[in-house]
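Course assignment 3, question 2. Fill in each field.
Student: A.L.
Task: Predict the tertiary structure for the chain below.
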Amino acid sequence: MYPTFVDALTSRADARLRAVEQAGAVAAVTALTAIAAQISLPLPFTPVPFTFQPMVVLVGAAALGSRLGMASQLLYLALGVLGLPVFAASPVLPQGVARLLGPTGGYLMSYPFAALVAGYLAERGFDRRYRTFVVAMIAGLAVVFAGGVAWLTVTLPAHSLRSALAAGFYPFVVADLAKLLVAAPVMPALWRFSASTR
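Answer field:
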């Protein structure tokens, strides 16, 4: 198993300091997820807005690893459930726990599991090269889409997979794959920079 990027940056000599640094990294990824949610574009033909959250979730999880990556997204959901305005701004979708019960709930609830997958693959070295990190991010993105579409199948009035795919997959998959290809160089570049400064 490979060390994660956060492992490489945190103190190895002092266990308490390491725990504090890891907690700070988790909080930072949680905050970035909340910030990415605010950069959203409502679409007239679907209740699901276009956001940059999935890329932040996946890159953040790669940096943190599976356990801490999942923790960052569980913290994000907990803050949202408590009513903090961390979910995407929407004139029709409420903040708080009701958001998890609405049409976007499946995507949000999939984030911890997508982070787990991306972090797990990063712990196996997938974040060191562009091509393998693309694979890791696609695996995580597949979890997000699976959760989102499955939830839409239940919550949309039509209750059909076809309508769920039309509302929650087809409008987003090309753009999300493009965002993924743009985001994939981040972790390999951070590893190269880290190696060059040692």
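Instructor remarks: The two ends are 21 Å apart (CA to CA). The chain has one domain: 5-196.
Grade: pending
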